[in-house]
Amino acid sequence: MGMVTRLKDIAAKAGFSVNTVSLALRDSPRIPEETRTTIKTIARNLNYTPNEVAKSLVARETRTVGLILTSVTNPVLAQVAHQVERWLSQKGYGTLFASSNNDPDEEQRVIDMFRARRVDGILAYPCNHQDLERFRQLRAGGMPVVMLVDDPEGGVDSVAIDEPAGAEKAVAHLLALGHRRIGLLDAASSKGNIKKRAGYLAALAKAGVTPEPDWIIDPREHSLEAGRRALGELLARKTGVTAVFAVNDMLALGAAHHAVTSGLRLPEDLAIVGFDNIDFARLAMIPLTSIQYEVEQLVDGAAARVLELIARAADLPPPQNVQIDPALMVRASTQPKP
Questions:
Q1: PANTHER family of this UniProt entry (predicted)?
Q2: pTM of the predicted model over 0.90
Q3: What is the pLDDT of residues 226-272, one digit of tens each?
Q4: How far apart are CA 40 and CA 177, in angstroms?
């Protein structure tokens, strides 16, 4: 049987008015329980499905939130997406997912698609952390938007991990262990995110260390293979680095693989620190020291804020910017320099 979306079809079959059917399907106490059961049974037999589009036009809400990711293969973003869906579902909201694939044009297409589908609000990881104008324009137009990265100008709501602080902790840890020549594997700055590099440089500056240009490698991607290639390039430069900070764990794990297969001992010959603290980092053959990406805290804050903005969409409050201080998780990939 085909899908039925009209209440009057159920009313004709049940012998009740459309209004009675509508109230019964919404479990109104105004309708006797026996009548409600009868109407619901007929609705199921007719394969009735509510017309959510029509309902949303009447209510002026769809009870959906759009989530923009930069990549669906990033383990941390996948974990955030999972937590966002669970959190919103508990509040009666659905989640629409889309990836920009780090392409600004695709990001704009995703935004346009979300608006066409009349989402009530948007959570977003932007392609370029330094260019958030399109998201500021959305908010100025009345769309509840919460960024999952920091907005340095404060023009749009954000709940974000304090990436400079996390990177500074990672490098300060290596410095405290006696390392002075510390490499950086950073595929993010070319995509507009300079925050982790800023933390790396800040830690070195506080220790009175001036980094050499050859210490910094742009792997161009965030994959295991990119990390493996990047460490190979860094070692080929013969810079004498004794430690490496990678801006995510996938790069760090790829680098660790290359180091071990090249005959280096971790951490005796090379110490490595990552960022995100994904499960693979904890369970690696040589467990990886990493900066914890506080997924639950991030999702709790961002999802709650976007629902607050949705509730006040007619008069959005001033933007709030919340930064979460990440913890350093020390494991076997770092130890005092001999």
A1: LACI-RELATED TRANSCRIPTIONAL REPRESSOR, TRANSCRIPTIONAL REGULATORY PROTEIN
A2: no
A3: 999 999 999 999 999 999 999 999 999 999 999 999 999 999 999 99
A4: 68
